[in-house]
Specification:
The complex is a heterodimer. Chain A is mostly beta strands. Chain A is built from one helix and eleven strands. In chain A, strands 2, 4, 5, 6, 9, 10 and 11 form a seven-stranded mixed beta sheet that branches. In chain A, a hairpin with a 2-residue loop joins strand 7 and strand 8. The longest helix of chain A has 4 residues. Chain A is globular and about 40 Å long. In chain B, strand 5 and strand 6 form a beta hairpin. By secondary structure, chain B is an all-beta fold.
């Protein structure tokens, strides 16, 4: 039990579909993150929410749309994706200074776009 | 911008061998440094950290020392086990207000009996 739960674990979607990834944390953390993990590349920070406010959007295409309705939940809405969007999407949370506690990651959603 | 460079894998070792995974970084200011581990089918877990120069982070037999003069944070373990097989990520935090972390590409370690 990592304290950060991501659903679904696996998702296959067509390029015209709309789907959502869900992340939930029960740690009382005040910041949540979406990262994209592709083979042979560093983890790419996509979005950061601090106190439910988006504080970073790293030039992510508009076909990815985040939502943070409260401090415990984070969503990533997907529509008209491309095959190159296939990757492992990781959610993380943190509280206070990352320098002291680091991130807590979920197990990820393995996304395949066909 | 900030960046982290790790040695490319995979690294294959026999059980009880000595492990070193190299990591160097580029950053402005004085970042904090981390090693994360990712076991198959799971997310990343914080393995150890160091927040200032000459600090040594340690956990589960793994160690890494924050070397400011060489901008390095190499991961070491004296005797690896099969259960240590995983992908290891070096990372830094720029101590920004929303706690941004920059990761390396990861190094896959395979330990054979």
């Amino acid at each position: 039990e990592t304290g950060v739960t991501q659903t679904p674990r696996h998702l296959v979607m067509g390029m015209t579909n709309k789907k959502s990834l869900k992340c939930e944390q029960h740690l009382g953390h005040n910041a949540m993150y979406w990262y994209k993990q592709s083979a042979k590349k560093p983890l790419e920070l996509m979005f950061v929410y601090s106190l439910e406010e988006r504080v970073e959007n790293n030039s992510v295409p508009s076909r990815f749309s985040p939502e943070c309705p409260n401090s415990s939940h984070l969503f990533l809405h997907l529509h008209t994706l491309q095959p190159e969007d296939s990757a492992l999407y990781l959610c993380a949370s943190s509280q206070g200074q990352v320098t002291n506690y680091g991130y807590t990651f979920g197990s990820g959603t393995r996304l395949t776009v066909v | 911008g900030d960046s982290v460079t790790q040695m490319e894998g995979p690294v294959t070792l026999s059980e009880e061998a000595f492990l070193t995974i190299n990591c160097t970084y580029t950053a402005t200011g004085y970042p904090s440094l981390f090693w994360y581990v990712q076991y198959p089918g799971e997310g990343l877990q914080l393995l150890l950290k160091a927040t200032k120069a000459d600090d040594k982070g340690s956990n589960k037999g793994f160690e890494a020392t924050y070397r400011k003069e060489t901008t390095s944070f190499h991961l070491e373990k004296g005797s690896v086990q099969v259960s240590d097989s995983a992908v290891y990520f070096c990372a830094l935090s720029d101590n920004g207000g929303y706690q941004k972390v920059t990761f390396g590409t990861g190094t896959k370690l395979q330990v054979i009996p």
